[in-house]
Structures are given as C-alpha cells and as structure tokens.
What does this fold into?
Amino acid sequence: MQDRIKVRVFVRRPNHLLQKLIPEMNLYEIKQEKDYLEIIIDNKDYEKLKKMKTIKELQIIDYYGVYKIKNKFQKYKILGLSIVIGILLNVFLSKFIFKIEIKTPNQELKEYVKKELYQLGFKPFTFKKDVKEITQIKKELLLKDRIEWLEIEEKGTKYIVTIEEKKKQKEKTCTIRNIVSKKKAIIRSIQASNGEILKKKNDYVEKGEILISGEIHNKEDIVSNQCAKGKVLGETWYRVKVEIPQVITKQNKKENYKWKIKIGKDQKEPNNWVIKKEYSIVKSNIYPFQISVLYLQEVKIRTKELTLEKVDKEAYQKAEKIINSYFQKKPTIIRKKVLKKSLKNSKIIVDVFFAIEEDITSYQAIQEEKKEE
It folds into this structure.
C-alpha cells in the first residue's frame, strides 16, 4: 500500500476547497461536513495542503502504508526499547547473587565462614557459580578444622549456606565397665569393639539390663575384666499429647525480587506484598512509563478449619516438633499412630504414639573383688 494520510481540513467553504483540490491531487476518500472536509491524500501532497491560505486548521487523523509503520515505531519506540531492556536486564540480574545467608548458631563461626567465602570469590553482587565451582568451594571449606558439614542451597537470587561446627572431643580413660540399657527397648542393632555381647537383635530389654559385658568368661569362670566398648540402638516408645485449635491461621513469608512495569497511573500492589526496596531501572519523562525492580516480602495468610477426622496431619507435625526437642539430633521415627482424639474449648486434644530408633547405650562400672593371697 502507498504512503497516504487521512486529514481533516477546517475551512469556511468545504465545497469550494474540494473543487480546487480535485484537479491538483489524488483524493481517495472524501467526507464533507458543514465546516470541515475529511479526505485521504498521498503523503507527498500533504505539504501542498499545508501551504493553502484558506485553511483554518489541519488535523492528521491516520496514516497508511509504510509511513504508518514508521510513525507507530517513532511513537512507541521508547516503550518498546524499555521493555526489551527490562527483559534483558531481568535475564542478566537472574545470573547474579544478591544475598548470602549463613545459618549457624555460632556468630563467631558465621563471621569466619563469611570471610573464607569472600576469599573464595563467593560473595553478593557477583555471578552465580556453577555446580563444579560450588563443589570446589564446599571442599575448600571442609578442609578447615572448624567445619564438620555444610550445604550450599540456591534459592532465587540468594544462596543459603548451612554449617555444622566440628566439635572437639576429649579422649577419656575407659574404666572397667558393662554396657547396659538406659531404658526399656527392643534391640534393633548391637555392635561391640570390646567386651562380650549378651543380647541379640529383637530382644526386649529392661532399663539397666546388661547388653555388652566387660567380664570376659571362659565357660563359667571370669578370666578378665575389661572396658566394654560398643553401641546399641533400640526401639523406644513415647506418647505425646498436643492441643490444636479448630481454626488455625498460617502465615507464609517469602522474600523475592520482582519486576514492576508501570504504564499510566500508579498501580496498587497486592495486599500480601510488602515492598522492602524499589530500584528504578527505566523511567520516561515524556510518557507515564517506568520499570523498577522490587525487593519484596510476600505474605500469604491461610485459614483452615479442622475436624476430628482431618486433624491427624497437623497433630503429627506438632508432635514431631516436641519429639525432636527431646534429642540433640533429629531422631529416626520407626512408626507413629494417633491413639486418642477429643474436643475441648474449641481445641482438639490428640494423643500421639511414637516408636523411635534411639541410642540406648549406657554404662555400669564393674567393682573388682580383691584376691586373697
């Protein structure tokens, strides 16, 4: 299609102007009103039309052909360019580390690991590491005497480094002793590096019962007393009572980076977003347009009503937290079962049974008898 323009010409006598234009230029569409004339002309004839002194006002209504594409491009090129830049910037920023979170209760160890990571080039506002580089960083840190175990987890534009400190154990003098059970249990495994094993797997044992004896026998005679060494794992039992509200409200918080594109008036953010910081990337003073990066916290609140039939999952979760608090490390749960459920004052009371694999190793000193000479 040829380059053409649709114009509205305001003139005192539209008919008189029309008669004058017909022999001078090509007219493709004509609309005549009382005080104006609306016509489509070739782009080259527009300058002729502008020079006519009888015309009061001239308005461009539309463009046609290649000229229309060029005009649209000129009009929206800033917006289009901003969007392209925003997309490229988004891809670029997603390759960056913005935050490194170190998880350990030891603040001094936390600062020590932070310095070590910086020396290895693992710090905020640098490019993300690939799997090979992460593996090498973990190896370097594990060579340090202070770290027993660590894990590096990537979460969006953040890395979470979880550390377990290496504990130095003092060597103790091993006295003459038996290994006994510290509670009622069913034996799951028994290992001894020194001493005489008296029990076997699946045996039921009472508290204080000898499992590995330090008295070494030859038939019925005791030939020597030794320091029994070993480890016994047993199945032990716990009963936990928990109270759960019938209506529970959960609040999930999640930190994230998000792009914000504003066109026209300010757009309200959803109520569950809390904006921590806003970084302006592209802003136009001509058009009401802006691209920003938001550092925000997303808060989601969920309300759930529980019944006796649907409370088991919540009860297990709460009871497991209580069980975990009994041990230094998270225990192995062999099985669990809800024993009893009841309602009281808008709360659900639940009794939960747990069978736990636990170290039941305890010690009992052996008193040597003095031999008469």
Observations:
- The longest strand covers residues 229-245.
- Helices lie at 14-21, 46-50, 66-93, 107-119, 131-142, 312-325.
- The first helix runs from residue 14 to 21.
